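User: Let's play a game. I give you a shape written as tokens, and you guess the letters that built it. Ready? Here's round one.
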């Protein structure tokens, strides 16, 4: 198995997993552009946003939107990017459908500027920061009748 996200989900590769359930997983980007840069993945392997079926798209995008709300409303980030890259020309590096949720604590200079390797201390800090708010994902799923395992 070569897909790094599938390997993380199977416990074969190290990764920081914030949430897993309802067909999605939320992990910390290993190369964050800001503190709290998240990736929302489908649990199933699909290559890109065009390949995942609608039920999976709904789960991934609603999770990303819920997390964007946590950043803006609860954690007071002045901005958030929610974006999927599809295809190498668009900057997709890992071919397993995922949506970036990037809180902007200050005005961004360039979209990917400031990208660096995630440190363990920062990762633990981000997980602690988000843990009290992660129930919003279940609430969003439930409100749409999506809160069951696929
Ligand atoms: Zn995969």
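Assistant: Ready! My guess for every position:
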């Amino acid at each position: 198995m070569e897909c790094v996200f599938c390997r993380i989900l199977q416990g074969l590769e190290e990764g920081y997993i914030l949430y897993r359930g309802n067909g999605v997983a939320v992990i910390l980007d290993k190369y964050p552009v800001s503190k709290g840069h998240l990736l929302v993945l489908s649990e199933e392997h699909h290559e890109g946003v065009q390949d995942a079926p609608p039920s999976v798209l709904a789960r991934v995008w609603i999770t990303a939107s819920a997390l964007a709300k946590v950043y803006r409303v609860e954690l007071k980030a002045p901005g958030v990017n929610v974006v999927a890259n599809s295809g190498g020309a668009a900057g997709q590096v890992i071919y397993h459908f995922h949506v970036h949720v990037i809180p902007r604590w200050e005005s961004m200079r360039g979209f990917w500027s400031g990208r660096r390797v995630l440190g363990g201390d920062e990762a633990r800090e981000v997980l602690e920061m988000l843990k009290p708010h992660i129930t919003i994902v279940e609430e969003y799923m439930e409100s749409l009748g999506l809160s069951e395992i696929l």
